[in-house]
Amino acid sequence: MAKGHRSQIKRARNANKDTRPSAKLSYARVSVQKACYVLDVIRGKDVATALGILTYNPRYASSVIKKLLESAIANAENNNGMDVEKLYIAECYANKAPTMKRIQPRAQGRAYRIEKRTSHISIVLDER
Q1: Which CATH number characterizes residue 114's domain?
Q2: Is the pLDDT of residue 45 over 70?
Q3: DSSP result, 76-124
Q4: Which of 10, 106, 116, 126 is spaced 20 to 30 A from 42 at the CA atom?
Q5: What per-residue confidence (pLDDT) applies to 7?
Q6: Number of domains making up the chain
Q7: How far apart are CA 25 and CA 83, in angstroms?
Q8: DSSP string, 8-76
Q9: What is the mean pLDDT of the chain?
Q10: CA-CA distances (angstroms) from residue 1 to 4, 6, 14, 15?
Q11: Over the stretch 1-29, which tens digit does the pLDDT of each residue have?
């Protein structure tokens, strides 16, 4: 059973759009598992604390996520007019992206596959 015309369905879906400031990085050259280690640490923290954690975290993913968080903060400040002091990380997650397949030559003419994994990382901020 149809729930209305296609344009009505689209209009209803677009009416409840999320207006929270966010930033997304597609095809980041870091695996989902490694990105999630860093994202789990900063989830729910305020932005100043999260930036401090990311600055001194030795993992490679933390430098990528720090840049993304700074972008989300700039979006909140410039596009939504929010106060930076009140911002916190409401959501942050990493989704699987396409994997690059490469070949590593091995002994006796064999070839091993190397999978260079990528991820889509998203950060959503909100005001307290």
Answers
A1: 3.90.470.10
A2: yes
A3: HHHTS---GGGEEEEEEEEEE-PPEEEEEE-GGG-EEEEEE--EEEEEE
A4: 116
A5: 87
A6: 1
A7: 23
A8: HHHHHHHHT---S-EEEEEEESS-HHHHHHHHHHHTT-BHHHHHHHHHS--SHHHHHHHHHHHHHHHHH
A9: 93
A10: 9, 13, 21, 22
A11: 567 788 888 888 878 877 899 999 999 99
- The 8-class DSSP code of residue 127 comes to E
In a domain, 49, yes or no: yes
Scanning the structure block, which residue is given the tokens 């091995």?
A: 106
Question: The tokens of 80 are what?
Answer: 């939504």
Asked if residue 12 is part of any domain, the answer here is no
In a domain, 14, yes or no: no
Range of the domain at 60: 19-127
Q: What is the DSSP letter of 6?
A: H
Residue given tokens 């600055």 in the structure block: 55
